[in-house]
Amino acid sequence: MKKMLAVVLAMLSICTFSITAFAENTITITTTVPDATYTLNIPENQEIPFGATDTDIGNVTVTESAGFAYGKNLKVTVTYDDFKCDSTSTTIPYRFGIKADKAVGFAVDSGSYITFAGTADGTVSEKAYLKDDSDMLIQGVAIRAKSEDWGKALAGEYSTTITFTAEVVVSE
Fold first, then answer.
1. Residue 58 sits in a domain of what CATH number?
2. How far is C-alpha 61 from the geometric centre of its chain's CA atoms?
3. Is residue 118 in some structural domain?
4. Mean pLDDT score of the chain
5. C-alpha pair distances (Å), 172 with each of 22, 45, 69, 84, 167
6. What total of structural domains would you count in the chain?
7. pTM attached to this predicted model
8. Domain span holding position 116
9. Phi and psi at residue 33, in whole multiples of 5°?
10. Best label site of 97, 128, 167, 169, fewest CB within 10 Å?
11. Three-class HEC string of the chain
12. Could you give the CA distance from residue 41 to residue 31 in angstroms, rounded to a whole number?
């Protein structure tokens, strides 16, 4: 009887344990980061007068920007070559320059870039900086050619292309 009582008590004690269901103990949380959007405004096509040594050609600005943040910036690379003429072997070298509040006539080498910094409100700042230099408010861009380079050019129709390539980047 003691054995039977021991078996019954063992069975009753097993029945009093709660049964634990093993459910997954993790959750997945997702989010979607929208594309950053912007409008890059660059100067229009124009003709530079012969012999001009310093010609304002407009400005580079960004409007209608959204989807940016601190550390998510708009990098605008500027590339260009000398004025060239199809019918002559001469070129007219020039410098693309930035006129800014903190520097007059900042020369921009081809392949350099301007950065418009992302802000807390999701736009980019109207303040821009050149490469890693301090912030400056860009007030315009210009073409600078030396008088002696104009004088060395043979007669003909010369042209150049300035390309602005924008990309959204994350600062380090």
1. 2.60.40
2. 12
3. yes
4. 86
5. 43, 35, 13, 39, 15
6. 1
7. 0.78
8. 37-170
9. -95, 120
10. 167
11. CHHHHHHHHHHHHHHHCCCCCCCCCCCCCCCCCCCCEEEEECCCCCCCCCCCCEEEEECCEEEEEECCECCEEEEEEEEECCEECCCCCCEECCEEEEEECCCCCEEECCCEEEEEEECCCCCEEEEEEECCCCCECEEEEEEECCHHHHHHCCCCCCECCEEEEEEEEECC
12. 31
How far, in Å, CA of 143 to CA of 107, rounded?
9
Using CA atoms, how far apart are residues 73 and 170, in angstroms rounded to an integer? 6
Question: How many C-beta neighbours within 10 Å does residue 90 have?
Answer: 15
Q: How far is CA 121 from the centre of its chain?
A: 17
Q: What is the 3-state secondary structure (H, E, C) of 126-144?
A: EEEEECCCCCECEEEEEEE
Phi and psi angles of residue 10, each rounded to the nearest 5 degrees, phi first: -65, -40
Structure tokens at 122: 């999701």
Q: Is 11 within a domain?
A: no
Q: What is the pLDDT of residues 75-100, one digit of tens each?
A: 999 999 999 999 999 999 999 988 87
